[in-house]
Amino acid sequence: MLKIAKLKELSFLVYGLGSSGQSVIKFFKKKKIKKFKVWDDKKKNIYKKFRPKKLNETLKQVDYIVLTPGISLIKNKNLNKFKKKIITDIDLFYLNNNKSKSIVVTGTNGKSTTCKLLAHLFQRNKFKFSLGGNIGTPILNVKNSKNSYVVIEASSFQLSHSKFICPDYAFFLNFTNDHLDWHGSMNNYLNSKLRIFKLQNKNHFAIINKKLKKNFISKKFSSKLITPENKDYKKIKHKIKNDYLTSGINDENMSFVYTFAKLIKIKDNSFINSMKSFKGLAHRFEIFLKRDNITFINDSKATSCRATLSALSSLKNIYWILGGLPKKGDKLKLSKFQKNIIKCYLIGKNINFFKKQIKNKLDFSITKNLKNSIVEIIKDYKLKKYNNTSILLSPAAASFDQFINFENRGEEFKRLCNKYVKKFI
Fold this sequence. Notes:
Number of helices: 18
Radius of gyration: 23 Å
CATH class of the largest domain: Alpha Beta
Largest sheet: 6 strands, parallel
Distance between the termini: 63 Å
CATH architecture of the largest domain: 3-Layer(aba) Sandwich
Number of domains: 3
Number of strands: 16
Helix content: 25-40%
Strand order of the largest sheet: 6-7-5-8-9-10
Structural class: alpha/beta
CATH superfamily of the largest domain: Mur-like, catalytic domain
């Protein structure tokens, strides 16, 4: 494998100047790697002196292209010609890391929550650790030291181009339809996730959803295969006095973390006590208000049908706000959860997509936006008050038709709920 000394002899193009791209430049300067250029299609005035005059010539000449995760080769045909040269900031982390043990977490849903759970587990049990990757802090900006753990959230975008990633523990949580506009096909999407295991050896652990076990075996990977069982976690679940974790929506995430805890010899009592104090993440099944027998839940991060179905499975008597920009090929399989839903409120520009899926299955209103939805929900609730009612924003779709991002959508939902609840309930 390449090492820093060798990297100093090579040439690079940093393509994309988001947070990860800028962390790469900082890393190169720190390690005295001098042969690099910088390119961003939009940010032409940053790092001017490093900007090549002729992009195509530079792409041909450099040894490696360090690509920002958001750039799809399907949409950038020019870059696609240089696919073999492309690496990521995570690759550079592994080329430089000889101190800490690493845990890389991937999957369609639940990555951020699982990473935060791991970080919380380490913190409560006084392990040295750091957290980075797709969760927020670029991985090259985190500190790693001897006898420590580094928790890395890895998206399929990052993994698609990773060539040197080799985690001590690799988590593959789940896999459903997503990001097809970026990957082009489900097979490409799956293979990007499976790259997490490619360079592992017999001393490493592959902790993988049992539904994906066959995919691991067919590739003949070398690491130790472990499939977490929910039944193991459920034996201790009742002892964790934490509504966020024990609602059911986090059972999959928790079974992975519990499996890992046992691998590193954390005892059950320590695990249980650690999890009691976990607060959860904003916009991920976030219980932010309780009033007059109603629980208000912000699940704006649920941008796919699978993520939304997890929320629906764990609640009863739901007033459900749904809609936005759906994922290509996504479907709502509601048969198991119809009984949990009182009424559905459709928002966003792709109302017909969801209307077709819930018609003749659920009572619904076309409310178009969050404000109208909340006002109508309050009116409906007053007509017939159910016990243990939930008002749930779980859109099963991206937010970009009406909001900047899912965080913006979630914060607006919370603001409107607080405003109108005070008025009418």
